[in-house]
Each structure stands twice: as structure tokens, then as C-alpha cells.
UniProtKB/TrEMBL annotation:
InterPro entries from the UniProt entry: HTH_LacI, LacI/GalR-like_sensor, Lambda_DNA-bd_dom_sf, Peripla_BP_I
GO MF entry, a single one: transcription cis-regulatory region binding
UniProtKB keywords: DNA-binding, Transcription, Transcription regulation
Organism field: Rhizobium oryziradicis
Transcription regulation is among the record's keywords: yes
Name the record gives this protein: Transcriptional regulator
Superkingdom in the source lineage: Bacteria
PROSITE patterns in the record: HTH_LACI_2
Residues covered by the HTH lacI-type domain: 1-55
Lineage, opening ranks: Bacteria, Pseudomonadati, Pseudomonadota, Alphaproteobacteria, Hyphomicrobiales
Pfam families for the chain: LacI, Peripla_BP_3
Amino acid sequence: MNLKQLSELLGLSQTTISRALNGYPEVNAETRERVMKAASETGYRPSRAALRLATGKAGSLGLVMPVSEDRFSDIHFAEFQNGLAQECLAHDFHFVIIPAHPSKEEQAIRGLVHSGAVDAYYLAYLRQNDPRIAMAKSLSVPFIVHGRSLGLTEDYPYLDVDNEAAFASATEMLLNLGHRRFALLNGPQELDFAVRRQMGVERALKGAGLHLPKSATSNTVMTDEHGYRVMTDLLRQPQAPTAILCASTVLALGAVRAINDAGLVVGEDISVIAHDDDLPLLKPEHFRVPLTTTRSSLRDAGRRIAERLIADLATSPSGPPLQEIWQAELVVRASTGPAPNKR
């Protein structure tokens, strides 16, 4: 069954059928229901070329993915993409990824939009004063930012986790357990989420009359290897920290390995809290000592980004941009306990 045959079967134009299948409001509910029923019974699925000709839409969401020799593959990125792809599949949307060198990312985004290959796209890995936002606002298709950008007026659509509040809460918990020597194993310093997580730690420590020494703060790619190296160096300090905050369970995996190698006990000698993106292959409850975390699902965030973009395409929203800030859940497990001198 092709579009022409379905058109002849129903006595409707091919344009009307395409618009009915894609939820356009000018098609009345009775006609839409009739078209949907016939499409289901005949097994009709519109071709992408026909869809684009009939509606002017590609039926695709897009992303430009920065790629270079010095960039690591990122399990966090893959988990977010999984959620987004699942939502695209549920709505019969394609998901287009265009690789580009980081120095040519803006050029690649413009090319992707002007090609007509996508109807909407999202921006990820936001930096402070990120120039991509102004560029995105100047283009003709909807976009959503995953994260925010410090230094810019928040007049753009976004979905973000309250990273500052999450790490302030985690730090306050450790302070209440009597800890006074802290360290932060953070993500790359140019990324907005890492900046906000450090702000949260520093805010809570300032409230207790403490500060976070520069020597106790690291900014690295979030891998097991980096977590191990940084933690090993911290344990060599004359006054080693007793409270460790990690920007990811992947960093925490390496940090815990270093603590174990030093003959120390997590939750007794050193307390550890990590941010948990709900990665299916790295569950914090499966650590040898179950890990206390601030939890917010990256897969759920991916689904929500796709859901919002697809909804924007169907309704053409007006008014101020929708902005969502999710609160992370503090999940207490055995990796946190009283400071050693408080036992």
C-alpha cells in the first residue's frame, strides 16, 4: 500500500492523508481517525521522501557530535542518546547525528539546519557563555538545550538538573557527619554542569566556615582511570580528605579502587558520594560498598528532550521558552559515614 493507493481508497488527497498522519491541527478529528484506522489496517507507512514533499517536514531530530582524536567515547552521552532514540522510535521520528570537529561545530549545526535534513535539534555539553545559543536562536528551526550556560541570560528553552543544589545537599550531609576535609573529583572545567557542581560544594562549605582547596579539586574527563589517578594523588597528601564528591559514578569507580588499594575502607576511613546518571552498566548499589549518590536519570532526560521537540513541531508554541530544572534525589547508602575522628 502506497500513498497514492491509500488516497484512492479513502477518497482523500495525498496531502490531507500526510497531514492527518502527522497530527496537523487543520485536519479534523473524524478525518484523522479515519486515516489512522485505514493506515493501520493496510499496513501503510509513509516514505520519508513523500512525507517531506507533502508536509515540508523531514520527520527527524538532529545533533552535531564533536569528534576529535583527543576526545574519549562517553558512556554518559550514549545513555542520553538511548532515551532520546526511544522517544523518536515511539513517534516514528528519525534521529540524525552529524560528526564534526569541535572547532567547526557551529558551522556544522548551520549546515545541518539549512540542509532540511532535520526539523529540530538539541545542544549538549553546555559551556559558560556558550556561543552556540545565540546561533541557535538565529536559526529557523526549534531547538532545546540540555543544560544551561552561566553568563548568559536564560531566554532559551532548556532542560537541566539543579547541579548546584545537588552537590550543596551532598556536601551538607557530609558536614553533618563531621567531615571537614573535602575533595571534589569533577568533570571538565569548561562545562557548565561541572562549574555548578563546584559552586554547590563551595556554597555548603562556606556556610560551615570552610573552603575547598585548589589542591583538592580536579577537572578531568569522567573515566575510571582519571578517578583512580586523582584519588591516588589525594591520598598522598599530608592531610588527606575524608569526604570525596565525584561528578560521576564512573569517576567514583576509579576513586574507590584507589581507596581499596591504599588499604582504606569506604564508608569508614573515607566517605564517597557520586552523581548517579542511572547508567544501567554501573549501578551504585552494586559497588562492593554501595555508593551514596545524587541521582537523576540521563535516559529520562533524553526522552524528555525528544518529547518536547516533537511536541513543539506539532503545536508551534508561542510565549516564553519552556525551561525545566529537575531536582536530583539524594540516595544514602553505605559509602558515607561519620568522619574518622567522630567515631
